[in-house]
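Fill in residues.
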C-alpha cells in the first residue's frame, strides 16, 4: 500500500453566519484510501457530555447546572456542543428539559449548539426550540433500533428520509448519524455494505455531515480504518465524524487509527462519561481530556483548555459519586508527578 501525503485546509461552508466558522470541512477527508504519512494539524471536537454523558445517569442534573457547564465548555475553547436530545422523557428522563436548555443558551457566543433527534417529532421540537443544527440519528442494527427508537431497521431508514426532508424545510444544518456501525451487542458484526448503503442514502438526501458511531465500543483500529476510508470516499468534501466509545479500552487507539486515514472530526465527552441506556454493558465515550491531551502531545491543535474541562469532570464525579472512565482529568490535577504536554 502506497503512503501519500496531502495538505489539510479549512473550508468554511456558508449555511448561516453562526455556523460558518465551525464547519471545518477539512479537505484531507477527501483522501480515498491507504495510510497517510502525517496526521492532521488540527482536529475538530464536538463535546457530547451534556447529552451522551448524562443520558444513562440515574441522578438528574439540574437545568441551571447544565447551562452553567455549557458556559464553562465555551470558556474552555469548545466550539461545538451537543446540548441535549429531543426524545421521550419517559424513556430518557435526563433529557426532559431539552426546551429549557435551548431557551437558556447564550446565542451571542460563537458556538455551534446541536441536539440529537430520532424522529420527525423530535426534529420539529428542536427546530421550534431554536436550534439550527441537528443530529438525525438511526441505528445500523435492527435489534438496537427496535430497543433504542422503537423502530425496525426499514422503519428507521424511512424515518431518516422524513427527518432530512423536514429539516431541509426548516433550513437546518443536518448531521446524518449511524449508530452501531462497528458492531452490535445483540447481533454481533454489522455488514459494512449495509452501512455504506445507508451512508450513500443519507448523502443523496442532502445531509451536511456524516457521523459513524461505535455505540457499543466493539470497533478495532483495522475496522475503523477500513470503514472510515470508504466513508471518506463516499462523503467527498463533507465532514466525517467518529463517535467512539471506550467499552473495550480501544477508544484512543481507534481515534489514532482514524486520524491516520484522514478523519479529523471526533465526538468526545468530558471525563469519558456516556453510554446508551439501551445497550447492555455500554460505557463511556472517549474522554475529551484524554483525546485533547494525546492530540496536543502529537502537535495536533484542538483549541481546548484541558485543565478547564478537567475541572468540570472532577466536579461531576463528586456530584454523581462515581469515578468516570477517563484518565487525564485526574492525572493533570496531581501535584506529585510531572506532566509532559
Amino acid at each position: 500500500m502506497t503512503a501519500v501525503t496531502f495538505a489539510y485546509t479549512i473550508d468554511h461552508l456558508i449555511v448561516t453566519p453562526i455556523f460558518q466558522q465551525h464547519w471545518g470541512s477539512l479537505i484531507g477527508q477527501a483522501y480515498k484510501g491507504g495510510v497517510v504519512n502525517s496526521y492532521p494539524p488540527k482536529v475538530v471536537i464536538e463535546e457530547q457530555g451534556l447529552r451522551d454523558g448524562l443520558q444513562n445517569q440515574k441522578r438528574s442534573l439540574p437545568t441551571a447546572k447544565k447551562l452553567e457547564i455549557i458556559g464553562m465548555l465555551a470558556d474552555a475553547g469548545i466550539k461545538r456542543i451537543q446540548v441535549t436530545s429531543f426524545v421521550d422523557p419517559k424513556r430518557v428522563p435526563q433529557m426532559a428539559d431539552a426546551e429549557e436548555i435551548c431557551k437558556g443558551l447564550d446565542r451571542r457566543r460563537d458556538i455551534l449548539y446541536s441536539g440529537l433527534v430520532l424522529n420527525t417529532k423530535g426534529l420539529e421540537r428542536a427546530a421550534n426550540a431554536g436550534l439550527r443544527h441537528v443530529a438525525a440519528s438511526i441505528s445500523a442494527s435492527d435489534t438496537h433500533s427496535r430497543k433504542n427508537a422503537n423502530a425496525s431497521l426499514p422503519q428507521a431508514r424511512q424515518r431518516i428520509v422524513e427527518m432530512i426532508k423536514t429539516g431541509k424545510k426548516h433550513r437546518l444544518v443536518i448531521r446524518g448519524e449511524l449508530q452501531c456501525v462497528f458492531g452490535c451487542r445483540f447481533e454481533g458484526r454489522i455488514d459494512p455494505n449495509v452501512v455504506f448503503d445507508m451512508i450513500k442514502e443519507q448523502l443523496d438526501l442532502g445531509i451536511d455531515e456524516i457521523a459513524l458511531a461505535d455505540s457499543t465500543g466493539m470497533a478495532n483500529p483495522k475496522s475503523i480504518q477500513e470503514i472510515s476510508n470508504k466513508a471518506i470516499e463516499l462523503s467527498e468534501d463533507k465532514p466525517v465524524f467518529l463517535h467512539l466509545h471506550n467499552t473495550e479500552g480501544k477508544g484512543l487507539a481507534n481515534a489514532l487509527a482514524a486520524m491516520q486515514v484522514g478523519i479529523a472530526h471526533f465526538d468526545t465527552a468530558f471525563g469519558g462519561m456516556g453510554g446508551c441506556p439501551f445497550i447492555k454493558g455500554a460505557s463511556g465515550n472517549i474522554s475529551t481530556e484524554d483525546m485533547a491531551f494525546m492530540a496536543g502531545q502529537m502537535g495536533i491543535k484542538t483549541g481546548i483548555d484541558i485543565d478547564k474541562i478537567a475541572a468540570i469532570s472532577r466536579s461531576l464525579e463528586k456530584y454523581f459519586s462515581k469515578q468516570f472512565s477517563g484518565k487525564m482529568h485526574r492525572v493533570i490535577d496531581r501535584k506529585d508527578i510531572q506532566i509532559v504536554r
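Residues 1-34 have pLDDT under 50 and may be disordered.
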